[in-house]
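Session log. Operator J.P. requested a structure for one protein chain; no other inputs attached. Running the standard single-chain path with token output.
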Amino acid sequence: MKSILGIGNALVDIMTLINDDQILERFSLPKGSMTLVNSDKSKLVKNDTSGFRNTFASGGSAANTIHGLAMLETKSGFIGSVGKDETGDFFENDMKKSGVNTILFRRESPTGTAVALISPDSERTFATHLGAAVELGADDLKPEYFKPYKILYMEGYLIIDRSLVEKACRIARDNNMEIALDLASYNVVNEKLSDFKYIISNYVDILFANEEEARSYTGLGPVEALDKLADQVSIAIIKTGKEGSLIKRGEELVKVGALPVLCKDTTGAGDLYASGFLYGYSNDLPLEKCGVLGTLLAGNVIKMIGARIPDNKWPALRKSVSKIFAE
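Structure written below.
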């Protein structure tokens, strides 16, 4: 099994069920997107949604993926930046208890938060205040952090600091690691398209995207976008929601159907899909089984509110994973 290191924004998610989409319009939050907000706007969103049902969990896209991998008993690490506060302690302890080796830098700024506004149709919209998370910089990265791992996994949100992403990729290449990247959000792809194209064409081996992100990157629908992405990386994966996912490596094309479940919240679906896929890949499984494992985890996280599968669900999931291995 190949060990996996993640780098991403260390955040605490505030999962909030809203009655309608009026609050999204009020705060100019495009539905289904991740929008960066300043401290003042974050406070306003939190205050205006304080009467709604909410839950707290450590989060951030790459952290969710690494957490899922650790729950599948993969040797996993995570690099991030948090505040010197109780929220930062919460994040660190939650990751450690799952078995993740945490490399966290403590800052004077508060730990970042992501208010996930979940619409009645289960779509989620993030108002994210990065806080200390955005203070992770290229100078923080040391080669020794990478040496125990074989795969580097990064979230696309990091592209805001291209020098950080490029240094991580260079260290990974120097250590003969494979590099996986998730495009993260269509609006981020739109804003940082040239940076994404540079990093992907020069460094990335495995690329994850959903339909909207793939369209933002290529201007094409999922099938055509898959072909274009697969020309740039070793393995391209496009997640197509209820239709499942499309995977391509060279001339090998795989289509995996979605798990037929009642969706309560799509938060974390892409992150957990990456967990399952990378778990299969790190164990040298065929692409189809990698996709099936991704679908299994994604299908289970959308059955509940939040971006994490509860601890008590993992024993049964690990049994299901073992069956897929044996088939």
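Operator note: The two ends are 18 Å apart (CA to CA).
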